[in-house]
Specification:
Helix content: 10-25%
Shape: elongated
Distance between the termini: 29 Å
Mean pLDDT: 94
Number of strands: 26
Number of helices: 7
């Protein structure tokens, strides 16, 4: 069996990112992957502006007095066009342009206006450039804002808009074909026999892939029939960049998926030293990449997240993405046998300033409830055995595309 890291590296080495691109309006570009780096064409901010409501003034005018005469105002979009002279200040609002002659802003709450003289008394002495956002302090012309392969988030869309960018070149969207296999499976909404179960894997897989930003083609539920499975693969390979299916990659007599792949394409590997999820297959069918997930729901979900998603990110042209792994203290003991990496479902809580992690419940590979109620995965290394309460463990917070 391959170690998890070896399996991922083999898939990454086998794949070349797609090259096709398209140009989209930024409103339609969230979750899309940049085809080229984005550099700033302007300074951000574009001019010195006030960080708060208050008064703009010349610091040197406070050497002999704490009272200045207001001579105008600067509002966002309506700047003060005059020049401050000795003993003068202007009212200024957050985001408004700083007059060239001013060198600091004092907050409104640190001032007091004399109703009789109209002068503004400064209740504190500010420092030079206080409360001024300087031109270009966030970005300067030519700065790289996003690297090639960056996946655009909603906040990124706002950044592009702030730079005046309306259209952006991105990689085309991957198309992923999805189906399930198994005579024991029934489509939700239909009645089932006592020896059957509802097909949950396909719906989890579809949702995770869609949330990851891919175009998903759902081919439905395929029975344990070698020819029908072969037909499904051929249909999927005609329209998709990759195929993800669950079930049929184990060693049972009716597990035809691996057999079909070996006849129609090639299998790179089909066992990974991980729990849950040992029977994971990777290969190709007629130019489409293939990811065969185990049939148990938790195994399918975890292998999709830990193995298939990183490979699909490479195929889509996304730059290397590394999961955030944190340290936590085991709040209870965890059972584990050395030999396979174990991804146990846990609940992490902050207790007295320390992260402590507990089991999310029964760890059976068919129990989705451990993922529903858990908020993290506990990464237990391949060579590690049982974990005692109080030992340090590595955790990965559950987030999109699982949650």
């Amino acid at each position: 069996m391959l170690a998890v890291s070896e399996a991922i590296q083999q898939m990454l080495n086998a794949m070349e990112p797609i090259t096709e691109t398209e140009t989209l309006h930024i409103a339609d570009a969230v979750d899309r992957i940049l085809d080229d780096s984005v550099t700033s064409t302007l300074d951000v901010p574009s001019y010195d502006n006030s960080a708060m409501d208050g008064y703009a003034l010349r610091l040197e005018d406070l050497q002999d007095t704490d009272a200045l005469t207001p001579v105008g105002q600067s509002l966002a979009g309506h700047p003060f066009t005059g020049e401050l002279k000795g003993g003068e200040c202007i009212r200024i609002m957050t985001g408004a342009k700083i007059p060239a002659s001013a060198n600091c802003v004092i907050a409104q709450e640190s001032t007091e206006v004399n109703d009789q003289t109209g002068k503004v008394h400064m209740l504190m002495s500010p420092s030079k450039n206080a409360n001024i956002r300087k031109q270009g302090e966030e970005l300067k012309v030519g700065n790289v804002v996003f690297a090639r392969g960056h996946k655009l988030t909603p906040v990124d869309i706002g950044m592009l808009a702030s730079l005046g960018i309306a259209n952006i070149s991105v990689k085309r969207q991957l198309t992923i074909a999805v189906f399930s296999t198994g005579d024991e499976l029934v489509q939700p909404g239909h009645s089932k026999r006592s020896d059957q179960i509802y097909d949950s894997n396909r719906f989890v897989i579809h949702a995770m892939l869609a949330r990851a930003g891919y175009n998903v083609v759902n081919l439905g539920l395929i029975p344990d029939n070698k020819q029908e499975i072969a037909d499904a693969f051929m249909q999927a390979a005609q329209h998709a960049d990759a195929i993800v299916c669950s079930g049929g990659v184990s060693v049972g007599d009716a597990d035809y998926t691996k057999q079909v792949i070996e006849e129609l394409g090639s299998v790179g590997f089909w066992k990974v030293a991980m729990k849950p999820g040992k029977p994971f297959a990777f290969g190709q069918v007629n130019g489409a990449w293939f990811f065969g997930l185990p049939g148990n729901p938790v195994s399918a979900t975890i292998t999709l997240q830990q193995l298939a998603i990183p490979a699909l990110q490479r195929l889509a042209g996304e730059r290397d993405v590394h999961s955030l792994i944190l340290n936590a203290i085991a709040g209870e003991s965890f059972k584990k046998r050395a030999g396979r990496a174990d991804f146990q479902r846990g609940i992490v809580r902050n207790e007295n300033g320390e992260n402590r992690v507990y089991s999310a419940g029964p760890q059976g590979s068919g129990m989705l409830s451990s993922l529903v109620y858990g908020n993290c995965l506990i990464h237990l290394e391949q060579d590690r055995g049982n974990v005692a309460k109080g030992e340090f463990v590595s955790i990965q917070l559950l987030s999109a595309p699982i949650k």
